Batch of 4 targets.
Target 1
Amino acid sequence: MSPTRPTTPRPTGQPPAKAKAKPKAKKRAKPDPAIAWARRLARYRPRLLEDTLDSLGELYGPQVWRRRLDPTSELILTILTQNSADINAEKAFVALRAAYPSRRAEEIHEPGAGWGGAGLPPGAPPDWIAVENAPLPQLVDVIRPGGLAPQKAPRIQATLRTIREERGDHSLEFLGDLAPLAARDWLTAIPGIGKKTASVLLLFCFNQPLMPVDRHVERVAKRIGLLPAKAPADLAHEQFIAMLADEPERSYETHVLLIHHGRAICQARSPKHDLCPIRGRCRMVDPKAP
């Protein structure tokens, strides 16, 4: 029998030695939902976006980007289109020009295929200082043809005031020198300016690779399956950016073709499936479409 090894007594009051704690496992970062969706679409429905754009391009013709308005005019016109028909927004903008004339150069509005109105007649942009400082009841009356004037008039004045206080004048040309998402963040920091409005300005004024998702784009994209059926509008903007990551130069084409298709064929009620060139891949026509 081996002798018992003597134990060393622990000094009184000294706590027992603690075992070394195991290092905590690093938490796996949550996947970006927009990128995850784009990868899933590419895996299970390859070339869906490309085939959609190619088919719509054959139907409606090539879409070439052209700047259509001064950035500040584009922003105010887009605010006027919020929850209103484009043709009514045009009337309100023309009324702004007449009520608050400026001596600036005449603008030529070339709205393109996605626009829902007739296009603005040539004319100088409004005097934005006069618009910002106009008596609110007067401004409401001026833009009343555009609809929702009591809500939009103070929004327009607050937007112009914010731009001037931040930049010293009402020009937004500096946004073209910023990275697309930084420019969008600058605009969406203005109360009442969301991703759609900001993306419209940046896409149409600077050809920034951003994707405005309005009700027509959202409807068409969800019917085809380009967007998940329950995708919130805010996330849909990011999902399109992710889908177009390899071809960001097609952002303008994507927006214009989808919005025009939503107006011309894929209407909210009674879509014209027999005229649609992408019905073979549309999940509304065939829930199992490839």
Target 2
Amino acid sequence: MKTSSAFPGLIFVVILAIGAAAAFVIHLGLSDFLAVVVLALSLGVAWLTFASIRVADQWSKAVVLRLGNFRALRGPGLFLIVPFIDTIPYWLDTRVLTSSFKAEKTLTKDTVPVDVDAVLFWKIVDPEKAALAVADYQTAIGWASQTALRDVIGKTMLSDMLEGRDKISASLQTIIDARTEPWGINVISVEVKDVLIPSSLEDAMSMQAQAERERQARVILGESELQVAEKFGEAAKTYANNPVALHLRAMNMLYEGLKTNSTIVIVPSSAIETMQLGGLAGITALTMGLGQDSGLKGSNNQPTGGAGTSVNAGDSAQPAGPV
């Protein structure tokens, strides 16, 4: 990275302006030849000063070579070099830098092709090594990161890769840091951005997850049925010792059913006889009670017949024909 600054140009302009002013004064008082010499000297001094002054930013380091040999690291701030002898081939940024890398169509340990995108956070801790030990440290970091990612993917199962990205990131950080340490570069962290799998495999995994949820739902339902059966067993023991409670429970069940539904069908069975609901008198009394309740609710809207009423459970009382 090359750093530019306006300060050397400002110095160049100031020196040249001073020389031009001196040459103009000499031109007025002395000779033109001396004025030209002064102007030429001021121009040379201004250019040498411009070529010698360098300014590095707070986060920059300049690698100075003298006749091809490493001289020193300069910066941050103002420093001087010798024109034509000293050169600055590299300006190194010592801040935390980021590089994105990815691996496409790489097979996992269970032979599933995946595309993985990741981001590398790194920093130059030894600018001398970064400038002298490797030709292009940014390209080298990119290739080292990509090959490390492929190695980690090849040794990892797909399920572990989808669930344990932190472990993959830690493994990548360890491998890449070991490869870049001789270059004076420290890997701060590695973040896996995305893991892409084939669409057909996504559908299969979705079906697998749905089947697993259904299995869990059936297991929970079975456990619920077991608990309900246990409670029903306890209730049966209570009703067996108290027939009156069983009868009242049966009547309440019929009442609630006829309240919400206009028709209820009672099939003759041993359960009906046990609950003493098979008698006509009991059913008639229950339906008449419901009919009276419904008639009271509908008396504000419908007139009542004269001779008699026939009740359909759950409906309002309707006029009946002559008996």
Target 3
Amino acid sequence: MHVTEKRALGARLRGFLRLGHPGPVFFHLLAVALFALLASWPRPVWTVLVLIVGAHTAMQLAIAVFNDYCDRAKDAVGQPEKPIPSGLVTPLEALITGCGLIGLMILLLLPLPPLAWLLSLLYLALGMAYNLGLKATPLSGIVFALAMPLIPLYAFAGVGHIPAFLTWLVPLGFLLGVTLNLANSLPDLEEDAASGVRTLAVVLGRQRAFLIGDSLLALSACLILALHLSDLLRVQPLVLAVTLTLTGLLFAALLLWTGPGKPRETRKRYFYLVVLVCLVLAGGWLLGVLI
């Protein structure tokens, strides 16, 4: 690992920014803000929303930082341009930053209801288990599947409102969680396979990982529609129509612009499109149930 003796301040700041994986963290921030707003509508308490979003953002940043910290040896071989192996951030600095972010998360959680603490700490435990070894196994998909429903549950618990219909988030979150895990793993598929890391995407292979990811997205939309048509969980018809239409358009873009036969650089685009589909499906579904 090469560390320069004197690192420019601007380069160091860019290193810390990249260490936090700002793209994925932004989507998590957007998701928890959307769910918290839906949970508290039409009488949101903005100070509570800031605490909910702030605590979750600090936690996601901590998980991202520890992800790079735990992968620093592998990245030194496969991705030497990343902040730690490139020397922009030292391992000790990353460790201190991650611990500080966890401390900030706990501080922001203190004014929230105890159930919100429990759900947030459970998510943190899953994220750290992922970083500390489960990401290198097919169980990584299960970790994502368990973690995804915790985001809206945490947002609703943070405002003290847990309606019974949220139990349906478990099967929906499972489907979307596995999809997100596959999408997240695909950009690094070759490096993971070469280093012996057996993520779910590596075990399935590129073709099947794309196929299963796309199929689970479609199945998630079908589940929402089936719940509505069977009267198990009705959704406001206009919201359902808009949600499924937007989902269909994003899914078409996903099939058109990404896929196993497309250049490797399009896999990151696949991840972001999958995240958008998940946000539209889950957010639209919750909005349609609540209004």
Target 4
Amino acid sequence: MRLLRSPSEHRQFACAARLRCVRSSGFQTRWAHRLKVYVSACAFAFISLVGQLYAQGDADFAKANQAYAQGDFKEAISGYESLIRAGQWSANVFYDLGNAYFRAGDFGRAILNYERALALEPHHPEATANLQIARDEARALEMQPSRLDRYLQFESVNHYSITAAVAFWIAAFCLAALIFARRRSAAMVALLLVMLLVFTGAIFATWQLERGSKGSALAIVIGKDVQARLATADTANSVLALPPGSEVKILSTRGDWTYVALPNSLRGWIPAKNAERVRL
């Protein structure tokens, strides 16, 4: 059994303990300072890198725009596509890329990029107008949306997803407030119910658009003289001729062939290389 300390031993022990605390505190302070310096340096480096990337992106975008203005559409296409591959894209980049393809006479890829611009920004008036011009020029076929899809397409899937997330967290806050509050507020209950309705409606809209004619399975025909066929063979009977820029809905893939829903409500097989999804 350990003996109790005498008063002098207590004083010596207390002094030693305080010394250890001072040393420990100094050690922790030094490490905290070093950690703060390290975090600050990393944050500065990250901000500098992001700034350099955006500056480089702006320079590349300006260079591609200059090539387009000079009529060098091949160089403009290369510049816009390099931005997209680097992840520095927006509705305007896809719109400009669509214009470059249109000027180069590639209506399929022009329509594809106008559609991608509108998938990011549904209310892009220039992309909407040029998309219709390109469709008329190419005589491209369109998937016919349902009446419900037409009502829901005034906003994008991203907007509905954000709305659902915001409504969910507001509803969660209201529910927590009602659980822990001493008195339940009628206004808080009403807000909770409204947010639940908004959340449910946004989730339904997202689900409906994802499975609809403009959903994630939407693809654009980029090849020429494409025939949708009854089987995965070039000798199979043709179901429908698809001009460049025509819309199809990808259902499945088998090897080098893709099974698609067609604008005439039929289905058929097309070579996978002749169509690209709108959603990246």
